[in-house]
Amino acid sequence: MNPTQPTQFWTEADSSSSCDVLVIGSGAGGAPTAALLAEAGFDVIVVEEGKWVEQGSVAPFSLEQMDQQYRSGGVTVALGLPSIAYTEGRCAGGGTEVNSGLYRRPPGEVIERWRDRWQINELDPDSLLSIATEVEQAIHVTPLPGPASKPSELLRRGAESLGWQFDESPRWMKYPNNDVRQGQRQSMTRTYLPRAAQSGARILTNCRVNKLHMKNTSATSAEVTLGTGKTARISFKYVFVCGGAIQTPAILQRSGLHKNIGNSLAVHPTVKLAARFSEAINIPDDVPVHQVKEFAPDLSFGGSASHAGLMALALLDQWSQFGSAIEQWRNMAIYYAAITSVGRGRVISVPGLKDPIVTYRLTRRDRELLRSGLSRLSLLMLEAGATEVFPSFRDAPIVRGRNDLTQLQNSFNAMKASVMSVHLCSTVAMGENRALCGADSFGKIHDTHNVYVNDASLLPDAPGVNPQASVMAIAIRNIRHFISHEKRNV
Amino acid sequence: MQRAPSLHFLVHPTALSILRSDLPKVSADVAEQAANFTVRRIRTLPSHMRIGVTMIAAAVRLIGGISPEQFVVRISHTHLPLISEYFRLIRSLSYAFIWETWPDTRHDGSTSDGSHL
Lengths: 490, 117
Ligand SMILES: Cc1cc2nc3c(=O)[nH]c(=O)nc-3n(C[C@H](O)[C@H](O)[C@H](O)COP(=O)(O)OP(=O)(O)OC[C@H]3O[C@@H](n4cnc5c(N)ncnc54)[C@H](O)[C@@H]3O)c2cc1C
What we know:
The structure holds two protein chains of two kinds.
Chain A: E1 16-24, H1 30-39, E2 44-47, H2 63-69, E3 76-78, E4 84-86, H3 108-117, H4 125-138, E5 141-142, H5 150-162, E6 166-168, E7 171-174, E8 184-185, H6 192-198, E9 202-204, E10 207-215, E11 218-226, E12 231-241, H7 244-254, E13 266-267, E14 270-276, E15 290-292, E16 299-303, H8 308-315, H9 319-322, E17 332-339, E18 344-348, E19 357-361, H10 364-383, E20 388-391, H11 404-411, E21 419-421, E22 424-425, E23 451-453, H12 468-486
Parallel strand pairs in A: 1-2, 1-12, 2-9, 4-21, 12-23
Antiparallel strand pairs in A: 3-4, 5-7, 6-15, 7-8, 10-11, 11-12, 13-22, 14-17, 14-20, 16-17, 18-19
Helix pairs in contact in A: 1-6, 1-12, 3-4, 4-12, 5-10, 10-11
Chain B: H1 3-22, H2 28-43, H3 47-64, H4 68-75, H5 83-101
Helix pairs in contact in B: 1-2, 1-3, 1-4, 1-5, 2-5, 3-4
Domain FAD-binding (chain A): 19-55
Domain Glucose-methanol-choline oxidoreductase N-terminal (chain A): 66-269
Keywords (chain A): FAD, Flavoprotein, Oxidoreductase
């Protein structure tokens, strides 16, 4: 068997199957959960709604990738004033297959805040960070083996010129022949999912879990829909719901579990701009590795994928004034300002609708941070040598010098901006604080016997850094705790 | 199975009108491909968004009456919540499609050699 391929153990004739542990979702939370359980000898089935897409078979950041590896083609929105566009991976490996691969350890003070406010037992920064070290080895976290791309260097140059703190974010990548342009993302289909399969886990792709069947406080089986549309049932002793911060609460709500489920969505909202330089700088298929952290954790700056299609989107809100810049897209790159929001959102599963409704409310402080973030980011780009900056909001001015920043500040309104987020978490916070938490200190849903969550939903609030490392470290901590307590029961 | 053709009927002409107005030199073929792509993508929206889009699209078609093209062009620059988001969705999808497929398209929809072929 090729260990990078899912085991196709399920035939169309099957209408049921069973296992010790069902893992729903194969992303940053689900894949390590499945691997560690299988390696500990549990009989595991992983059910993944998306398909298995070999890395390199679709162009990164392309519309085809959106079609194949994102939920709803990447067009999903949290309703609010303003609405926030968000994206979720939907494929084997989840978000880890499509994301930028920028690695950030969970900050020690964030772990302490989570422990104290949400009352998480046995959450200790040192041991979580030592798990992070293991993750770094398992997914090969490494700095670039050579010089960064031009858009990345420009971020660095702007920050240096302003005396602002910046650094290079390492990535989960392998670089054959130390070639920075040949990076191969060490996502879950390259790391933890093959490990799970090698230890006997059965991985079923193209299969969606609709809901869990509950009997009193225990779940007994899951109703699934196969790629062909046929429904079937998988029974289990334990279930780990790892569908990501939007789908996990939706699955739980459809199963009748509601207490503190889905009412505390946290995200890192971002606003963006396009910056034009006097020479060709665009790298269509990669993102900058430098991040500017001078105002962190409230505010961070970084770069986005910038091919011509995405550039057209960045200029869209002011097309009549900005549109002609698209002809210079090779001299341009897109940058973002991300904030650590204190607003919250909801995930609401409505009977009869397949997808949950998602809402998000930015606070006044969040809106102000977005305004100052976009203004500071524009300044950063001017210092980096941009000749023109095109902020992405309706009625935005073209920024050509520092004098234009006041006009930018005055005309910005979050309602006019295209706000988006790719970092979603906190919809089933973990901890013993029953007023806030849907799950206990190790991810078991309160007042159930065998229903666990183990993904981004558990993070009590937005970590203020790229979250995948936090998601993975928490998932591994929780699964080790589970194995040490439940091994004798199966 | 009824929903798919009706979504095409509701959204496709609106997308074409917007593209012809925003990008006056876009070729008929490119506009047609972009509008088809837009409809395909709208079909895969989450269920509640698809329902919302269908309702707004139907209202736009209904109110547009006998000169839908002029009406769409006028209203497509509105700032009213929801309605503006519908037009923004159409523009986002079709612009992304056009510039990803033909990156050297000019801002008026033309190409340097005068065609997209
Ligand atoms: C475009 C993008 C860029 C990002 N960049 C970075 C970055 O640079 N660094 C970083 O640290 N983080 C980044 N992130 C965030 C990171 O990818 C997520 O935090 C992480 O993947 C969350 O892990 P998860 O397990 O909670 O969910 P996911 O990784 O999203 O996995 C959930 C899986 O569950 C499956 N699923 C959902 N519902 C069901 C169901 N009903 N039945 C079966 N399967 C289901 C989904 O298809 C999906 O595969 C990015 C995310 C995106 C989308």
